[in-house]
Every structure is written in structure tokens, then in C-alpha cells.
Specification:
With about 240 residues, this protein is α/β, with parallel strands linked by helices. The protein is about 45% helix and about 15% strand. It has 11 helices and 8 strands. Strands 1-2-3-4-5-6-7-8 form an 8-stranded parallel barrel, surrounded by 6 helices. Helix 9 links the parallel strand 7 and strand 8. Helix 4 runs parallel beside helix 5, helix 7 packs across helix 8 and helix 9 packs parallel to helix 11. The structure holds cytidine-5'-monophosphate. The site of cytidine-5'-monophosphate has 15 residues, from strand 8 and helix 10.
């Protein structure tokens, strides 16, 4: 499993050239990088090999959700790419989560990748969950219950809002990782995020990894912005 407590830079860029151009600014400390669906599906698995070969750790954010056998085999291939962290939807169930772990172990070239679950997407509202997905009850309880399933299946943690990190830790224990986006400074643009936290507050609440995109990628000086976030988060 990867080292705990770090800043993950969300490389939400359209293509490889823009991503590499951005990453080349970081000459001394190579940040942990998140690659999402846009870049992965646009550029293919080589984008992972390329960034990895430049010395970055990689969180591949593809949120797998399929039958256990398919997820196991897909995870085996993602592990072969050398990803350090990846994720799936806890809604796929315990058998799928256990199969995913098995796949990651089978394909691991060194240490097994950290496996993280998505509980409920932040785009899912209480009303949508109840009326459209037909999942009853309070969304907070569903998040806690899915997190507990992920833990029982052997996963390492969940993606959640920094404001939920304390609840997840209370439900699943301090060792269960919380990976939290929604990081902003009061002096910065909020963009489309609604409930935000500063890096220092995320650390206080119990986030293990913060995922930071635009406050770093859109900054005038991304290296300085990254340094500020890192210092404030790690203390
Ligand atoms: O630019 P920004 O800091 O808002 O980027 C946050 C990153 O975290 C984006 O890649 C976004 O897709 C991701 N994310 C999120 N909220 C979630 C899950 C993932 O913002 N609930």
C-alpha cells in the first residue's frame, strides 16, 4: 500500500501533451498524480506508463463497476500498468470488491495498489438516491454503510468529502483511508465545488490524501501553489 498522507494533483487535462507540459514544471518534487477517465480513454494505457516513468505515483480514477470476474480481470491489467492507487464503486457489492483486490494482487509487480471505494457520488442528492435509485434512508447512513462494506471486503478506504472524513473514520476506524477532493483556499476560485475545505482543515478533520485540481493546475505558478498546499496539508 502507498505511503499515507499526501497531496494528489488531479491532472484533468484533455491530452498527453498538455499533461506532460504541466508535469515538466515539477523538477525537484514529483507530485502524486490523479489520472481520470478523460485522459485515460483519450490517450490509452500508455499515459499511465509515461507518467509513471517520469517518477510520479499514480491514482487511476476509473471507478470500476461490473460483475466480479470482469472487475478482477480489469484490475489485474491496471495493476500491471503499475498504478499505486485505483478505485471502484462500492455499489458493485462485496464479491466484486474482493475480486478487485484479488485482481490487483495477481497483477502487482511490487506492492499491491491501494484500493479505494466510491460510496455515493457527490452529484447524487438525497432525493435522487431515494426516488430514482430506490435506495432508502439518509444518504449519510448509506455512505457510512457502503464504507463499512468496503472495509469488510478488505479495501483500504473511500473517496469522500472532507466534511464526511470524520464520520467515516468514526465508523471504520482511523486506519481506514479517506481521500478527499473539494479543497479550496478562501482567496481562490471555488469553481463548481460547493462544500469546500482548506488543506489545513482537511488535515485536521482526518483526510489522508487530498485531491487538488484547479487550485494547482490553473494557478499562475503551479509549482508554488503545489508547495503551499503540501506545506499546509502536511504541516
Ligand atoms: O479542480 P478540483 O480541485 O475541483 O478537482 C477535484 C478533482 O476531484 C476532480 O478530478 C474531480 O473530478 C474529483 N472529484 C471531486 N468530487 C468527488 C469525486 C472526485 O471533485 N466527489
Amino acid at each position: 500500500m502507498s505511503q499515507h498522507k499526501d497531496v494528489i494533483v488531479a491532472c484533468d487535462f484533455a491530452d498527453k501533451a498538455t499533461t506532460i507540459n504541466f508535469l515538466e514544471k515539477f523538477t525537484t518534487h514529483k507530485p502524486f498524480v490523479k489520472i481520470g477517465m478523460e485522459l485515460f480513454y483519450g490517450e490509452g494505457p500508455d499515459i499511465v506508463r509515461e507518467i509513471k516513468s517520469r517518477g510520479h505515483k499514480i491514482f487511476l480514477d476509473l471507478k470500476l463497476h461490473d460483475i466480479p470476474n470482469t472487475v478482477q480481470r480489469a484490475m489485474r491489467n491496471l495493476a500491471r500498468l503499475g498504478v499505486d492507487m485505483t478505485n471502484l464503486h462500492a455499489a458493485g457489492g462485496s464479491a466484486m470488491m474482493q475480486a478487485a483486490l484479488q485482481g490487483l494482487e495477481e497483477g502487482a509487480t511490487g506492492q499491491r495498489a491501494t484500493l479505494i471505494a466510491v460510496t455515493q457520488l457527490t452529484s447524487t442528492s438525497q432525493e435522487m438516491m431515494n426516488k430514482e435509485l430506490l435506495i432508502g434512508g439518509n444518504i449519510q447512513n448509506v455512505v457510512e454503510s457502503y464504507a463499512a462494506n468496503a472495509k469488510a471486503s478488505g479495501l483500504n478506504g473511500v473517496v469522500c468529502s472532507p466534511l464526511e472524513a470524520g464520520l467515516v473514520k468514526a465508523a471504520c476506524g482511523a486506519g481506514f483511508l479517506t481521500i478527499t477532493p473539494g479543497i479550496r483556499y478562501p482567496d481562490g476560485e471555488i469553481g463548481d465545488q460547493s462544500r469546500v475545505t482548506t488543506p489545513a482543515d482537511a488535515a485536521k478533520i482526518g483526510s489522508d490524501y487530498i485531491v487538488v485540481g484547479r487550485p494547482i493546475t490553473a494557478a499562475e505558478d503551479p509549482v508554488a501553489a503545489y508547495g503551499r498546499v503540501l506545506k499546509d496539508f502536511l504541516g
